[in-house]
Amino acid sequence: MKFSSLSKLSDSHNKYVINLKYPRMKIRVVPRNEIRVTKLSSSKFKPLIDTLSKLEPGGDALQVNFTSDKELNAIRNIVYAFKRETGLKIKSGKDASSGKVYFFREK
Fold this sequence. Notes:
Elements: E1 3-10, E2 15-20, E3 26-28, H1 46-52, E4 62-65, H2 69-86, E5 91-95, E6 100-104
Antiparallel strand pairs: 1-2, 2-3, 4-6, 5-6
């Protein structure tokens, strides 16, 4: 792959455009926060995401059962991604002996 030119678009976001000789295409490097991940909406955790959006500050907590640390990490990653996208502050608590994790919003 041969590069014909590499030009910087702006200093504020460090965006670059790479023009290739063969095949002709433009490739941009963009900040990660400009990319919206849509995989969450079609995942098996859709009910979790829907319920997280219904939590109210000072209201009920959401209880989620887990069977392994791997499953717990997957659940937490979904919640972290949801928090990043919505900007809501959701806290959690874990009861390892009974295999439950709780998510809630404080006042």
